[in-house]
Each structure stands twice: as structure tokens, then as C-alpha cells.
Amino acid sequence: MNKLLTGLLGLALAVASCSAPAAPPAAATASPATAVPTAPPAPTATAVPPTATSAPTATAAPTASPTPAAIADVIEYEMRGSFDFFWEQANQDTASPGFGLIRDRYPGSEGIASLAAVGFGLTAYVIGVEKGYVDRAAAYARVDGTLDTLLAMDRVEGFYYHFVDMTTGKRAWGSEVSSIDTGLLLMGVLCAGQYFGGEAARKAQSLYAAVNWPWFLDAERQMFYMAYRPERGKGFEGHWDFYAEQLLLYVLAAGSPTYPVDDVPYYTFIRHEARLPDGQPFIHSWFNSIFTYQYSHAWIDFRGRTDRKGVNWFDNSVAASLAHIDYATRMDRKYETLGPLAWGLSASDGPDGYNGRYGAPPSGYDNTQHFIDDTIPPSGAIGSIIFVPDQAQAAMLNYFTLEPLKGRYGFQDAYNLSEDWFASDVIGIDKGITLLMLANYQSGLVHSLMLTSAPILAGLERLQITPAE
């Protein structure tokens, strides 16, 4: 990472932050979601050494712009671009059975929608109204029609297939019925229903109430399954047995008015702690992809809340983000991309295609589960802006200097300077996490809205995730 670039961007951030919005106050995937393999019994937590410990030194990097961009402008660039993706890359044919379904990615995988992208998109429309990107009436019409589409689509016990045909709404690619993608969809459904009210709220509650959460639960292990394929014997695959992005599943299931699940699964999954040298220990995910510390937090503000075991998931995400920054900084000498201004290893496209194993130490139980090839997705750092705002903004300023990384819908999915590679696609879930987290950073919009949602409040209470007294 070029030292001159680091200095210039640091100066730009210091100047621009004078007018940047303050962090909000305390609470008022083809791109599949990560599939975490079933893990063996947990060993004793250990400190994980990084691959290298050399202090960062200069490597080849793009020359900084003569006049660094203002961070407020970079934030607006990414927010508007991300919103435009969800607005423009949805099925807009009101006569179509797939009206409102949103592409998994663009320009790749034409005609394929992901239900997780729809969940992010429904929330994006709320943000778009508040930001003035779209008229409220137009956004409501899009939301209302999308909810009608979802109500008419094929479901299994209320759960949706991961990928569907955008035109017909039917299952695509033989994809699985997905617990996490349904969860991400429902967060968007509830958010839009809470914001628009009326018929949208009624339809949102109908979709939520139809989900049979106990059906997707392994009653013996008290863990949610990841997937269900009706043509494969018993049909269920994988377990949410390790910490990952699935926190929202427990909240949704616990808050259900029709098919509730108690707090046992939430307190059953493995909470394995590890740390980098001199870093804070934190509960990490299997691949330690940074998105796993972000997705549930995009809708639910865990700040100031602890569960009955004393875990504060917001603080855990802060520690995980700092560990990613520390690791990337230590790797500055080894790689051309990674450094203090390019961090946040996460599932994304790469030079050899999509890779769900992109991550950093600590991973698994033996620190061998993650994969690194110097690919960085901008969404990794941007999605942590509510956890480490200064470092996230510094990374955004760096990304903005890379012209091949900028496109029609904000930042492209990822880049790798060692391979001189820049992604050609954007991915819906990556656009979603940047837009939602930037909105939460600016005003707490999504967080404050969801903390007025009865199901979310009921779920948090049942799980005993309560505000500190």
C-alpha cells in the first residue's frame, strides 16, 4: 500500500469528516450465503498468529488523485449507485408473475433473481424514499406489487428457494430452499411493511406468519438446517452450528406469532473465540468472512444489548472488524491489494470466479478454513462502517481512486491488484450491505425502523437480548 496514498487519503478523511454525518446514537450470493460446514467439537480457544508479522512497507499502488474526493461525495456515490441497482435491475413488468424480483447480479446471470437480493431491495426502497431518490408513491407501488409476487410464489412451509427465474418466479438452477435467504428476505419484507403501513404491512405480516420455523429445525441437535432439497431423501442439508450471519434467524423465529421457536437454538450454536496477537478475542465465523459480522446488524441494532451469556454482538463485530484491519495491515508487505486502506476479506467474486471461502484468520478451529489470493471486495470495509467508521471511510477514499473499480452501480464487486483484475459484475447482496450500513451510519434509518417492529422486539425479548441497564 503506497505510503503517499495512505497519507493523502488520511488527510482527505480528516478534512472531509468535519462535515460527514456522525454515527447514529444507540438504539431509539451466483452468490449464495455462506454455507458453514458442520464443525467437530470445539477445542480450547487459541490465539491465531497471522501469516506474517512484518510492519507494512510500500508496494505498488495507484497514484492518488491530485484532489482527493470528499468522503461525503464517496458515500453518496455508493449509496445512489447501490439504490439504482435495486430499482433498475428488478422485474418492472406489472403483468409478470415475477414483478419486483431482483437480479442476483449484473450483468451476469441474466434472468436469475435471488431472494436475499429482494430482501435488501425492499429495504433499499425505504432508503430511496428518505434520500429523495424515488417518489414515495412509486416506491410503495413497487413494494406492494413485490409483496403480491412473493405471496403467489412457490414456498415450502413458508420458506423460499434461493434462486428463482425473474420472469416466472419459479425455482431456478435446482437451488435449495434456503433458511438464511428466506430470513434476509423477511427482514426486507418486515422493514418495508413497517415503513409503508396499510396493505403493505398486512401483506408483510402474512408472509412472515406463514413461515413454519420449527419445520426447519433439527429438533435433536436444536440447530436450524441450512437448506432443504425435496428431491434428496430426507431433504435437509447442513446446520447453522457455528456463529455466522444467522443471528437474524433466531430473532425472526422467536418473534413469530404463529410458529415460534424458543431460545434453545440461539444458545446452542458454537461460540468459538480466538484472536490475533495483541488483538481482542471475539466469536468468529468458520471462514471469518467479514460479511458474517454484518448482515444481521444491517437491520437489527445490537448496540448496547447483551444476551444472558453476556455477549454483545455489536461489540463482537467491532472486534472482528479491527482484526480484519490488523491482518490486512500486517499483510501489506506480502500483497499488492491488502493493507490498512484495503481490508475486509469476504465472500465475493475473484479472478477465478465466485469464492465463498474468502476470509482471514482466525478461521475454523485450526486456522486453515479461509482462503486468500489478494482479492478485496469494497463491501467488506463499507459494511463495517457502523463498527469502525474512520477506517471504513479511509478504505472508501482509497477505493474511489481506482477508476476500474467504479461503475454504473457504485463500486464493482471486488478487485485484485496482484492479478491486475477488477470484477465485471456487481452482486445484489454486496450492494445491499453497503447501502443499508451507510444509511444506518448516516441516520440510523433502518435500525430505528426495525426497533419499532413488533416481531423484532418480541424476538429479542424471547432470546433475552436486552439493553444494558
CATH superfamily heading: Glycoside hydrolase 144 (GH144)
Mean pLDDT across the residues is 89
> What structural class results from the helix and strand content?
alpha+beta
CATH topology: Glycosyltransferase
Q: What is the level-2 CATH architecture name? A: Alpha/alpha barrel
Shape: globular
**N→C terminal distance:** 44 Å
Number of helices: 14
Can you describe this structure?
The chain is of the alpha+beta class. It has one domain (3-15, 68-467): Alpha/alpha barrel (Glycosyltransferase). The protein has 14 helices and 16 strands. Strands 4, 5, 6 and 7 form a 4-stranded antiparallel beta sheet that branches. It has a two-stranded antiparallel sheet with strand order 1-15. A hairpin with a 7-residue loop joins strand 8 (273-274) and strand 9 (282-283). Helix 3 runs antiparallel to helix 4 (136-152), helix 3 (115-131) runs parallel beside helix 5 and helix 7 (247-254) packs across helix 14. The longest helix is centred in the first third of the chain and has 18 residues, at 71-88. The model is unreliable at 10-65 (pLDDT under 50).
Descriptive key words:
globular; 4-stranded antiparallel beta sheet; two-stranded antiparallel ribbon; Glycosyltransferase; 469 residues; alpha+beta; single chain; 14 helices
Task: Provide a brief overview of the structure.
The chain has 469 residues and is of the alpha+beta class. The chain has helices spanning 3-16, 71-88, 115-131, 136-152, 179-196, 198-209, 247-254, 295-299, 313-330, 378-382, 389-400, 428-443, 445-450, 454-462; strands spanning 105-106, 112-114, 163-165, 177-178, 217-218, 223-228, 236-239, 273-274, 282-283, 305-306, 406-407, 410-411, 415-416, 421-422, 426-427, 466-467.
